[in-house]
Amino acid sequence: SRILTNDEVGVRAYSTSIASLAAYPHSISTAEEVLHLPGCSERIAALWQEFNDTGHIGAVDDIDNDPEMQTLNLFYEIWGVGPKGARDFYYRKGWRDLDDVVEFGWNNLSRVQQIGVKYYEEFQQKIPRDEVERIGAVILDAANRVAPGCQMTIVGGHRRGKPESGDVDVVVSHPDEKVTLYLVQRIVEEIERQEWITHTLLLSTANSERNQTPVSWKGDMAKTGGSFSVGFDTLDKALVVWQDPSWPTREEDLEADARAKNPNVHRRVDIIVSPWRTVGCAVAGWTSGTTFQRDLRRYVKKVLGLKFDSSGVRRRDDGAWVDLEGGEKGKAPDMLTAEKRVFEGLSLEWREPSERCTR
């Protein structure tokens, strides 16, 4: 509710408390224990006690039953809308359901939002782990068809151990950085050829367009007069809608009707391609939960004087790229090793993905 009502302070505070409770490695038996956890106030301890005693939290039940919040959440769940867009739909435009969005605003929606409305019910269906892994396998196979030797890691909630996912995120790379140049485009073309992709909503090759050079986030771009928008966190990526092209009665259905509908559920899939030199940062950034990432960036800024995101690490004083994954050790042999080198280079204890499952 705090996300939907633009309560940024509340979002940060509650996210910190939730992350602290989730990370605590022991069972909690008293509210007093909650008070001793980082970011947990008396208010959080009282909420824990209420839930422990009743199995419910009254404030949460009230929000769940509030028609206004239900509608805001409906709009928020449309792919590409977000909290600001949801508030705009509800308060400024006065819409109250998906029919209103279609009737009064369809032509003003972005293509992503139109697809989000069209497949709203399907996108709400969670993706089980085995299906996520099958999708990842298809992507890796396609990558190796166009560029043998590729490696792939399924990231996001799946890697953190969630039993189901809302979408599928994968990071693809290759030890030879010449190979990853415009690789995302070739992967998408191969998967489209195999008929797994129904819509390609974004195909960004910004990183390839700058020859995969780790452009500084401030210094070098200012000196060359370039655009700040391409200097940081601009890995090549594709945002696609995915649908398994096979179903048991496909041949019979198509023979009877050439326009027979594929009954398989549409899924949202992100394909991210990283050059090998920063693939550990890409995997770490795309794996970790929101609060973990926020706290990691804060630590890197305040303690190390650096700037971190999924496209690499830079110095804050001059914006220069910092190599944490190669150096004297040479190239990492695999993505996991590269990710562990990032933790080591940032003077952090390694944390398994399951320990980074924060809100």
What is the fold's blueprint, element by element?
Blueprint: H1 8-23, H2 31-35, H3 42-54, H4 58-64, H5 67-76, H6 82-92, H7 98-105, H8 111-118, H9 120-123, E1 127-128, H10 129-146, E2 151-154, H11 156-159, E3 164-165, E4 168-173, H12 183-193, E5 197-204, H13 206-209, H14 219-224, E6 236-242, H15 250-256, E7 267-273, H16 279-287, H17 290-302, E8 306-309, E9 312-315, E10 321-322, H18 335-345
Parallel strand pairs: 4-7
Antiparallel strand pairs: 1-3, 2-4, 5-6, 6-7, 8-9, 9-10
Helix pairs in contact: 5-6, 10-12, 16-18
List descriptors:
alpha+beta, DNA polymerase, domain 1, 46% helix, 10 strands, globular, 3 domains, 359 residues, 18 helices, 5-stranded mixed β-sheet
Question: What would you call the shape?
Answer: globular
What is the CATH superfamily label of the largest domain? Beta Polymerase, domain 2
Structural class: alpha+beta
The number of distinct helices, counting runs of at least 4 residues, comes to 18
CATH topology of the largest domain, what is it called? Beta Polymerase, domain 2
Q: Biggest β-sheet, characterized?
A: 5 strands, mixed
* Strand element count: 10
Provide the β-strand percentage band: 5-15%
CA-CA gap between termini: 14 Å
CATH architecture of the largest domain: 2-Layer Sandwich
User: Which parts are unreliable, with pLDDT below 50 for 5 consecutive residues or more?
Assistant: 219-232
CATH class annotation of the largest domain: Alpha Beta
